[in-house]
Amino acid sequence: MADNKIESVLKEDRQFDPPQAFLDGAHLKPSEINALREAAEADHEGFWAQQAKDHLDWHKPFSQVLDDSDAPFFKWFADGEMNVAYNCLDRHLATRGDKTAIIFEGDDGEVEHISYRELHARVCRFANALKAKGLGKGDRAVIYLPNIPQAAVAMLACARIGAIHSVVFGGFSAPALRDRIDDAEAKMLITADGNYRGGKLIALKEVADQALSEGCASIETVVVYKRSGTDVTMADGRDVWWHDIVDGQADECEPEWVNAEHPLFILYTSGSTGKPKGIQHASAGYLLGAICSCRWVFDLGDDDVFWCTADVGWITGHTYITYGPTACGATQVMFEGVPTYPEPDRFWKMVDTHQVSIFYTAPTAIRALMKQGDEYPQRHALDSLRILGTVGEPINPEAWMWYRQVIGKERCPIVDTWWQTETGAHMISPLPQTTSTKPGSVTYPLPGIVADILDESGAPITDANAGGVLVITKPWPYMLRTIWGDPDRYKETYFGMYDAHTYVAGDSAQRDEQGNFRILGRIDDVVNISGHRMGTMEVESALVAHSAVSEAAVVSRPHDVKGECIVAFVILKNDDGNDKLASDLRDWVAQQLGAIAKPEEIRFADGLPKTRSGKIMRRLLRTVARGDEVTQDVSTLENPQILDQLQAKGS
Ligand code: WT7
């Protein structure tokens, strides 16, 4: 592929209308999308009420739509009762019982098709087992599993009995798992012995044991799914095998009818300060967002094969594996492995094998696969594809064009979906039936989502291409409800900048002349590595927890595959920095927080650039980390000589 040709094309600001071939087969017609937009603009609450009636099955119908009497603590459909697992499973049994819900492909290539009837039975059996183990409505269960169907089963089983799950990504380390268990005061941990990813063993139970060896006093039961067959230690009276507790359980389990606002799950994500925040989502509103976005953005229909390559440990996996596709009664692919194992054509091979029609992945994966060369996708026909999606970080136009041309063969609209753990589901994205797409642009807010860009005083920025703070100015059903155990932090973080109706996303954005949104990046101390959020403060705390370190400052710099990577400036207590210590510190951070937090580079120095009032000048460190020329005013630096040292270390 001629890269420079693509680059030059982009400078022309190209725009692509929905391809005719796509429109011919689309489930939603442009007129239906236009009607949705009009209805939402005419009556925000009425629109969402109608969607909630059309797309959710209610045990007890709601009469109230939005309750904003205690803003920013919003409630939606608050007097209604329903059950999320019922909406994802039971309601399909009459018409889609034998339809495949999940096509699972393991790391080693094993394939399993699970029907809706079978998935329902598995969820019921596991739900009964959880109840027998004393897990009940409102109790928290932490799920620390590989990306295998049992993770979705465990989540749906919790939802069925009204327990609140908190999934912790399998790549997180023992201290990170422990912190999350402690913060959620979870009664149960659901994990596996281990699994293989890219042919490498991940010893989940061993990590879980480490986490449980200190703290985690709330844990009463550990359920272990046998996946790798690895030897594990089972603590007497605490640890039980998944297969033992489901043995003999009934295939039916009456759903626990919960209030629409009943917490469905907590999912931890990084913020700019302190420990990760437990983002708490409600039941009905969250599921509604998952369903509507699957229908509108992915045009998801009964004949599709949907594949979201995320791990269930992230919000993307929650919404676009466990909940959205199942609530829509769709067939989806779930994959345990990595894109480059055993060969860099794994994704493309799977697209053909399973005839995937909607494919959703992250820019970091697209860039990594693009680097491998076009020969890998070219080995496969890829003609089942009809929509390509991307999420997690800004996608560079070059990768966007490659995705469109080499994977989508210019037949498939690209949906670049902006959203967050907090927003629950897509917020700003092209709707493939009507939106003209632009490389690097997330285009327009979804129907029923009202986004704006404000300056510091709260005035909307109307100038084209001027950057500002991205906000959502009306509550939406699938928004987070609070931060678990910390309502003040919720209020302060998301509604502290302007007022109680203006949600501050933490990103900056700009609009072009046509009003297309483009996301510029975070406005806080959060970095985005391979589409995953990490707080620079978390990495700094991990570094200073090491016995050799006295002080650390962490910034990011661009990385051609990961998007961003971490550069840490470290002041040691007495040693001189050397390569061995740098490598030990990188491993240390990975052990403390997980591999995604591992600094790309450690630079040792005698001090950090500080203002006379003692504030670390992070902007300056960012410039230095990027190897750019320092043009900032350094006259307020308390220790200007440190600058030469920091720069010298980088060369
Ligand atoms: C942050 C949210 C939403 C699932 C994955 C990440 C960035 C997300 C895009 C996009 C540009 C994006 C933002 C956002 N982000 N999608 N399409 N274009 N940036 O969820 O871990 O909660 O991170 O990811 O900075 O705030 P998350």
UniProtKB/TrEMBL annotation:
Binding site for Mg(2+): 544, 546, 549
Annotated protein name in UniProt: Acetyl-coenzyme A synthetase
HAMAP family linked: Ac_CoA_synth
GO cellular component assignments: cytosol
Gene: acsA
Residue span(s) of domain Acetyl-coenzyme A synthetase N-terminal: 35-88
Entry EC number(s): 6.2.1.1
Binding site for CoA: 197-200, 316, 530
Post-translational modification summary for this protein: Acetylated. Deacetylation by the SIR2-homolog deacetylase activates the enzyme.
A family per Pfam: ACAS_N
Superkingdom as given in the UniProt entry: Bacteria
Family the UniProt entry places it in: Belongs to the ATP-dependent AMP-binding enzyme family.
Cofactor: Mg(2+)
InterPro entries recorded: Ac_CoA_lig (IPR011904), ACAS_N (IPR032387), AMP-bd_C (IPR025110), AMP-bd_C_sf (IPR045851), AMP-binding_CS (IPR020845), AMP-dep_synth/lig_dom (IPR000873), ANL_N_sf (IPR042099)
Keywords recorded for this protein, A-Z: Acetylation, ATP-binding, Ligase, Magnesium, Metal-binding, Nucleotide-binding
Presence of the UniProt keyword ATP-binding in the record: yes
A GO molecular-function annotation: AMP binding
Binding of ATP, residues: 392-394, 416-421, 507, 522, 533
Biological process, per Gene Ontology: acetyl-CoA biosynthetic process from acetate
Occurrences of domain AMP-binding enzyme C-terminal (ranges): 538-615
Enzyme class, first EC level, given as a word: ligase
Purpose: Catalyzes the conversion of acetate into acetyl-CoA (AcCoA), an essential intermediate at the junction of anabolic and catabolic pathways. AcsA undergoes a two-step reaction. In the first half reaction, AcsA combines acetate with ATP to form acetyl-adenylate (AcAMP) intermediate. In the second half reaction, it can then transfer the acetyl group from AcAMP to the sulfhydryl group of CoA, forming the product AcCoA.
Residue list for modification N6-acetyllysine: 615
AMP-dependent synthetase/ligase domain span: 90-476
Recorded catalytic activity of this chain's protein: acetate + ATP + CoA = acetyl-CoA + AMP + diphosphate
